[in-house]
Write a structure and sequence with these properties.
alpha/beta, five-stranded parallel sheet, 9 helices
Length: 285
């Protein structure tokens, strides 16, 4: 696969221009993107009964798992490559805008309590910053320069991995960050739902579950969002399994920080060792 090479000492001068040139061919007709196309199966969804409407949405969602299944070899390569970089002191970063960014931040934020890893090991960046987690900030996604700046501000370095998430595969904010990561020699992974999109030009590994037209035209929080969540679940869980944070299927590194997690930690210890509840409780003090 061809890759855009950017000299590291010209990152901010050349990246945006190169990205804009690349995007020009992808931006000419957004309606041609499968994520923007009208879905003929849902063209009359507003005329259906509530049950019929929900049945139709469910049928569309059922196709997402098949799309993700087609990408399992690429996801496996990503998991193994990230795990290898972890052993060398590398970290994992997700970056995206809108729904894609929120899903990346969500996955990253779940890693410390689930696997007892430091919050710096898996990080999520979203266009517009943390305020965009609750409030719309879609305009932020149009700046490749901002994506590169946010990545630099986070201290991203050569041993790290960047997963750029963009349902359309052409979000400038994400492309700017991926290009910056590539210029540093870091591992770049592109996650999108459109085949042969711009994001593949910046990715060492491309993960592309093609989910097709959405139930509501262009609403990629739906099928594309579901596919993204499934893939991110696999990436983070797979890496943690590969790096020893799981014993059997038990989250043996869970942080017992509330009553539910204390109870879970006790049950994990009981299952792993065969001890009783009282012993598990004493061991966890």
């Amino acid at each position: 696969m061809g890759r855009l090479c950017v000299c590291a000492n010209h990152t901010y001068n050349r990246q945006p221009a190169a990205i804009n040139q690349l995007l020009s061919s992808y931006m000419s007709d957004l309606a041609a993107l499968t994520t923007e196309a009208r879905n003929p199966r849902t063209a009359h969804i507003d005329e259906l009964s509530t049950l019929e409407m929900l049945t139709l949405i469910h049928r569309e969602d059922a196709a997402v798992a098949t799309a993700v299944e087609s990408q399992l070899p690429a996801i496996a390569r990503a998991v193994d490559a990230i795990a290898e970089r972890f052993t060398q002191g590398g970290r994992l970063f997700y970056i995206g805008a809108g729904t894609s960014g929120r899903l990346g931040v969500l996955d990253a934020s779940e890693c410390p309590p689930t696997f007892s890893v430091p919050p710096t090991l898996v990080q999520g960046l979203i266009a517009g910053g943390d305020v965009a987690l609750r409030n719309s900030s879609e305009h932020s996604e149009d700046s490749a320069e901002e994506g590169a700046r946010d990545l630099a501000a986070a201290g991203f370095a050569t041993p790290d991995t960047l997963v750029g998430i963009a349902a359309s595969g052409r979000t400038p904010y994400v492309l700017g960050a991926l290009s910056r990561a590539h210029s540093l020699g870091a591992l770049t992974i592109g996650l999108s739902c459109v085949a042969d999109s711009a994001i593949t030009r910046y990715s060492d590994i491309s993960i592309t579950p093609v989910t097709g037209p959405e139930v509501i035209t262009g609403s990629t929080r739906m099928k594309a969002g579901t596919a993204t969540k499934l893939v991110l679940n696999m990436i983070s869980t797979g890496v943690m399994v590969r790096t020893g944070a799981v014993y059997g299927n038990l989250m043996v590194n869970v942080k017992p920080t509330n009553d539910k997690l204390i109870d879970r930690a006790q049950r994990i210890l009981m299952a792993a060792t065969g001890c009783d509840r009282v012993t598990a409780s004493h061991l966890l003090i």
